[in-house]
Amino acid sequence: MKATKECFACVLAQAERNLAEWDKDDKLKFEIMRLASRSLEMAEYGMKPIELSKLTNDAVKINTGVEDLYKERKSILNQKAKEVLPEIKDYANYSENPLKTFAIAAILGNHLDFGVKDVEIDSEFVSLIKSKSLAIDDFDLFTEKLAKAKHLLYILDNTGEVVFDKAFIEEIKKRYALNVKVAVRSAPIINDVTRKEAIEVGFAPEEIIESGSEMAGMTLEVATKEFLNFWDNSDLIVAKGQGNFEGLDEIKDERLFFLLESKCPVISKILGVNLGDIVLKQA
Hints:
With 283 residues, the chain is an alpha/beta fold. The chain has twelve helices and seven strands.
């Protein structure tokens, strides 16, 4: 999808949230926000929103000299997600369709996104998982593909969320004999999952592949050879989160499924859903 005029305010707000994690005075933060704003002079019509956000995020990273401003927050978010996971598992296992419930939990984990807003994991979040239903529901098509699949490529998104992704993947592997690879960001950006956080929540090193993306989302243009090899040879591909949708939504491939919460009006309009709706959609 192409970035719109609304995306400028969003990526600048994202830069400001990055600086909230930086223990420096307001004068320095003001100067870096000025530089982040100036970085948007390089924006070109036709860029994807994740490409626009990389301009401001890189400006913050370069001018603070800090590679990962969310390092501590990411670990905390993963830990908090682990604390509520047993309750989610208990609910899912006794639900009418446990696999679908795990899918919904993984999608709603996308609610935990510092790139869009500040979030908390609490009883309200757990209640949301128990009450929310899919606004676009291609779950049956997804399970049809699962039944025939031998190789699944799962493109991860945010920390916190990744805890529920892992639970969903474990449930898939209980039911279907298939090989799963998870793709991570190749450099820290906001609270997205890198190899470090994927290992932290329990993925084995051999399960993880570098995507090549240093943006808050994935495009094939930046993909590593390893990623492209698994993309070409997978029977089923899951793209988690809004950023991965932004980067891959123009691809028409029946193997590809988007699992996300729609958190901005532009994406809601594209999908034909309401703000805050959750989606499991075949490309």
